[in-house]
Amino acid sequence: MDWDGKLFHKALIALYLIAPPTFISLRFLQAPYGKHHRPGWGPTMPPSLAWFLMESPTVWLTLLIYPFGDRFSNPRSIILISVYLLHYIHRTLIYPIRLRNSTTAAAAKRTGFPASVALMAFGFNLLNAYLQARWVSHYANYEEDGWFWWRFWLGLAIFLGGMLVNVRSDLALLGLKSQGGGGGYKVPRGGWFELVSCANYFGEVVEWFGWAVMTWSWVGLGFLLYTCANLLPRARANHNWYLQKFPGEDFPMGRKAVIPFLY
Fold it and tell me: CA 128, CA 19: separation in Å to the nearest integer?
């Protein structure tokens, strides 16, 4: 195994190893941004800038690494990485602009994003962007995969459905934040919010489930598991936050935190 193969193997193991402690720690200690903002985590920055910086490796590192793969010109490789970049161009470039436009200067200052948390997210995105780009462009074996297009179209349908839920839910939340009240938050209603408190997280989990189906790889599965380890505990905390912050609100009957009817 060459040095890149060893690096890839160790990075993949690291992706699986960090998921359990992430899940356990977030059950007891929520990352201090957004609804759970609190002092004591060092310097802060505007949330929109933090999102841009910490998500940026998923774009620039992916574009940097991808052309060096042996299969970078394979149509299957190109279409897979295009789907991956579709999500992250939105998350890195479009979402921060929308966040900035929906947040007043006073609110941004009051709920600044800790630089320490942004740095940890930046580190994860370096790891994950390397793994996803390197797998798609170099290590995936497309020539012997007779089921590729069946899994791709199924996974793509799941991915796009999840992304639609994710983007529309983010827009709904940003719209509520711009209206103010409740420290800039209100109880979200309508659409998937009738079933879960964190429809945006549900959409993202569905997206990366679709990605795991499309890539049919340990890399894709590892990313899905880490997404769940990161988002499910935070969704649970957000759900409880809504219940405590708005005790008089009429919550939809049977609303769960993030997975409809289950969790």
Answer: 12
pLDDT band with cut points at 50, 70 and 90 for residue 183: low
- Whole-angstrom distance, CA of residue 155 vs CA of residue 141: 18
CB atoms within 10 A of CB 117: 17
Q: Is 81 helix (H, G, I), strand (E, B) or coil?
A: helix
Full-model pTM = 0.91
Phi and psi at 100, nearest 5°, equal -60, -40
Residue with tokens 């997975």: 259
* Burial readout 50-84 (b: 16 or more C-beta within 10 A, e: otherwise): bbbbbbbbbbebbeebbeebebbebebbeebbebb
* Predicted local confidence at residue 250, as pLDDT: 65
Structure confidence at residue 108 (pLDDT): 54
